[in-house]
C-alpha cells in the first residue's frame, strides 16, 4: 500500500509495481465511469486504456493539487466525453446550460411498501440500470461519480469541471429523475 505522495514518487520513477498498484486499484472504477457514460463496453475498455496511457505520459505534469485518483477520473471523464462528442457531432454537450431539463416528479410511490414484494432483486436492478442509462449525460456523470464510485462532491465537481453547487444540484435532480422512473416501474408492477 502506498501513500499518495509515495505513489506519485514511485510512478514518476516508472516503478512497475506502482503502475500495477494504480491500475489494479482504479481500472474497474474508471471502467464503470466510462461504461456508465458511454453505454458501450468496448468503448469503455478503450477509455480505460486511453486514460492510463494519458496519465503515464503526462505524469510529469501532475502538480499534486488533487489526489492522483481524482486526476485519473478527470482524464477518464474527458476521454469518455470526447468519445460522446465524436459519436454525435451535431449535438452540443453544453455543461454550462440550465440544469432545469429534468422535470419535477409526477408519480410518487409509497416507498414504505417493500419493493421486493413487487419485483425481484434482479428486476429492481434491471429497472435501476435502465433508469440510470436514461439520465441526461451531465446528470449521469455526477450520479456515477458520487453514488456509484463514492467520490466526494468536491472531487466530482473537479472531475466534471463544474462548481460544487452545480454538482449538488445535478445529483439532486438525478435522484429525483431516478425516483420518478422507479416509481413508474413499481406502479406498473403493482
Structure overview:
There is one protein chain. The protein has helices spanning 4-12, 16-38, 41-57, 68-87, 115-118, 121-134, 137-148, 153-160, 164-189. By secondary structure, the chain is mostly helical. Helix 2 (16-38) packs antiparallel against helix 3 (41-57), helix 6 (121-134) packs across helix 9 and helix 8 packs across helix 9 (164-189). The longest helix has 26 residues, at 164-189. It starts with a helix and ends with a helix.
Label the CATH architecture of the largest domain. Answer: Orthogonal Bundle
Largest sheet: none
Give the total of domains. 2
CATH topology description of the largest domain: Rna Polymerase Sigma Factor, Chain: A
Beginning-to-end CA distance, first to last residue:
49 Å
Structural class: mainly alpha
The level-1 CATH class of the largest domain: Mainly Alpha
Molecular shape: elongated
Amount of beta strand: under 5%
In N-to-C order, the SSE pattern is HHHHHHHHH
Total beta-strand segments: 0
Cα-atom radius of gyration: 19 Å
Provide the low-confidence segments as ranges. 90-97, 107-112
CATH H-level name of the largest domain... which superfamily?
Answer: RNA polymerase sigma factor, region 2, helix turn helix motif
**Tally of alpha and pi helices:** 9
Bin the helical content: over 70%
Task: Please supply descriptive tags for the structure shown above.
9 helices; single chain; 2 domains; Rna Polymerase Sigma Factor, Chain: A; Arc Repressor Mutant, subunit A
What is the element layout, followed by pairings?
Blueprint: H1 4-12, H2 16-38, H3 41-57, H4 68-87, H5 115-118, H6 121-134, H7 137-148, H8 153-160, H9 164-189
Helix pairs in contact: 2-3, 2-4, 2-7, 3-4, 4-8, 6-9, 7-8, 7-9, 8-9
